[in-house]
Amino acid sequence: MTTPVLEVNDLKTRFHTQDGVVHAVNGVSFKLNRGEFLGVVGESGSGKSVTMMSLLRLIPMPPGVIESGTAIFDGSDLLSMDIEDLRSVRGGRIGFIFQDPLTSLNPVLTIGFQIEEALRIHTSIPEKERPKKAQELLELVGIPAAKQRLRNYPHELSGGMRQRVMIAMSLACSPQVIIADEPTTALDVTIQAQIIEIVRDLREQLGTAVIWITHDLGVIAGLADRVIVMYGGQIVEEAPVRPLYKTPLHPYTEGLLGSVPRVDQKGSKLVNIKGQPPNLYQEPESCSFAPRCPYAFDRCRQENPPLIERSPGRRVACFWDLERNTEYDPGNRARLEVVEGDG
Questions:
Q1: What is the C-alpha separation between 235 and 220, in angstroms, rounded?
Q2: The pairing of beta strand 37-41 with beta strand 226-231
Q3: Closest by CA position to 239, among listed 252, 229, 254
Q4: Of 174, 115, 120, 118, which is closest to residue 149 (Cα–Cα)?
Q5: Contacts of 82 (CB under 8 A, 6+ apart)
Q6: Could you read off the pLDDT of 286-324 as tens digits, one per residue?
Q7: What confidence category does residue 266 fall into, taking pLDDT thresholds of 50, 70 and 90?
Q8: Residue 206 host element (H or E)
Q9: What does pTM read for this prediction?
């Protein structure tokens, strides 16, 4: 069995504000395998970005506090690691592509200087060889006239070009993991497709594991090996990409998929998930999705369902069995599967 490159257990992140404590991440646990492409989806405020930024302790502290959990990366816990050691991991062994490259790049420094700075901090490449390496990185992500672009400032590049620069910087030190936080949100669909193609090709060439955060299930349909669905700061479903799209096991996932236009379902109405997102000022003691769920019953409003394995590789946090349209019963389900298998 392959050892995961990253293993997160019971991560909890809180923000202490004037209005109260925001329970942003509530006991998130997952694994990332070497070379795997993991999609993380959910609506705005579901905890996707805060979860991943907590792993590298990039959230503002205060008001943010990582209350509990471990994040084992290559044998070391990122959450208890000395800050100097963590800095060597950030940008070196774990790359992070932020949502808005214009605010992530330094506006008064050239593109070449910023890429070479990453090489200086995280690699042993001699100073005279760094410009050539920076040029090669820009060429790798498809930037034309790369040598000339090294002298440009961020404002002189288009949004798509700046995002390619961010990808090049994240790849500068051949990281084991790249975390991409909605890197195509502010781009038009043509540039989105180009960026997605670049990341897919680079992952295949370099074998880097990728965590791709997005609110759009359509974006990762052809990218991910496995998908995590988040709601209310918790993982509600986790599955390989094809089974998840074919037969979602959580009502929230079903609603998300139903809200995506599909060419194979012409004439069908898009799903509208009624209601409001959960109040994160309260720690979840029952199912966060219950007020919006068409299948909710009394137990959902009294208990918070645990994330359990329904079948190999598929975890769900729900008391309802969507496939059989009844309350989930592990024992009864096992007997039914045996009978159906014998038939």
A1: 17
A2: parallel
A3: 229
A4: 115
A5: none
A6: 999 999 999 999 999 999 999 999 988 899 999 998 888
A7: low
A8: helix 189-206
A9: 0.86
Cβ(68)–Cβ(10) under 8 Å?
Answer: yes
Going by C-alpha positions, the residue among 20, 111, 2, 28 that lies closest to residue 315 is 28
33, burial (CB in 10 Å: exposed 0-12, middle 13-18, buried 19+): middle
For 42, 92, 137, 303, the CA distances from 142, given in Å and listed in that order, are 30, 22, 9, 51
* DSSP symbols for 274-327: -S----TTS--SS-TTGGG-TT--HHHHH-----EEEETTEEE--SEETTTTEE
Question: Side by side, which strands form the sheet with 6-17?
Answer: 20-32, 6-17, 64-73, 76-77
Peptide bond connecting 291 to the previous residue in cis, omega within 30 degrees of 0 = no
234-240 and 314-316 strand pairing: antiparallel
How many Å apart are CA 97 and CA 117, to the nearest integer? 16
User: b/e for 87-124, b at 16 or more Cβ within 10 A?
Assistant: eebbbbbbbbbbbbbeebbeeeebbbbbbbbbbeebee
**Calpha distance 286→284 (Å, rounded):** 6
N- to C-terminal Cα separation, the chain: 33
